[in-house]
Amino acid sequence: MRIARFAGDDDPQFGVIGDEDGVATIGVLRGDPLYAGLDLSGQKVPLDDVRLLAPVIPRSKVVCVGKNYLRHAAEMGGEVPDEPLIFLKPNTSVIGPGEPILYPGQSSEVHYEGELAVVIGRICREISAADAEKVIFGYTVGNDVTARDLQAKDGQWTRAKGFDTFCPLGPWIETSLDPSDLAVTTMLQGETKQDGRTSDMVFSVPDIVEYVSSFMTLLPGDVILTGTPDGVGPMEVGDTVDVTIEGIGTLTNRVLARG
Ligand code: MG
Over 90: is that where the pLDDT of 142 sits? Predict the structure, then answer.
């Protein structure tokens, strides 16, 4: 099932993506399904008539895994760590599909990083890898936008990874998906830059949930970005970046100058 969040008449609304006589629709839900369950209102709207928003706004955190693909670790001049390398992005960095990534004046090297994003469905801690599936609400597409120059300059990654608009998520959450072997591709200006598979992850999704929840309580709506394949590179103002994950869809954003 695909769950989207979209701009409603007043507040954002949630809905289930479906099909009505060959036309993609959204079956409108009452409330946020993370907290209210799947409560269909009966109202349906054509998907093309709505503006999709980030399918989840993390109430507390976006947890990220660094260097989780062998060839990406190598292109960054490092080795794969023995344990998952974890960092955070602030929830204020999240934007939705079609929203602009704002290129900050403090950086002159802003990179895309296409990643599978895990959406946590319930409060949990110390979850074993075998039980990870029980706490996962679904999966979406993420772009771990990174100011590569500031990442090197600062010695830690909070500023480089934490600018407003540096965490595009979307276009929706797929709730039924095996994350173990999915194609992850990133295109910049229509040219393929990243072409990996989640089967190349050093630490699998269940491994990551076990590791993170061993030291940090996870809350409904928390997002885990699971690392990026090789092929990262710079984006320029005016560029369009598409991240596609097999079985989910394509997340598209344009880069604009931060005013
Ligand atoms: Mg990353």
Answer: yes
187's tokens = 């295109």
pLDDT tens digits, 160-188: 999 999 999 999 999 999 999 999 999 99
Distance 69 CA to ligand 1 centre (A): 10
Q: Which of 149, 186, 150, 137 has its CA nearest to residue 1?
A: 137
Q: How far is the CA of 163 from the centre of ligand 1 (A)?
A: 14
Q: For the stretch 119-151, what's the b/e string if a residue is b when 16 or more beta carbons lie within 10 angstroms of its beta carbon? A: bbbeebeebeeeebeebbbbbbbbbbbbbbbbb
* Closest C-alpha among 202, 254, 252 to residue 227: 202
Ligand 1 centroid distance, CA of 111 (Å): 10
Domains of the chain: 2-52 (2.30.30), 62-257 (3.90.850.10)
| pTM greater than the 0.90 cutoff | yes
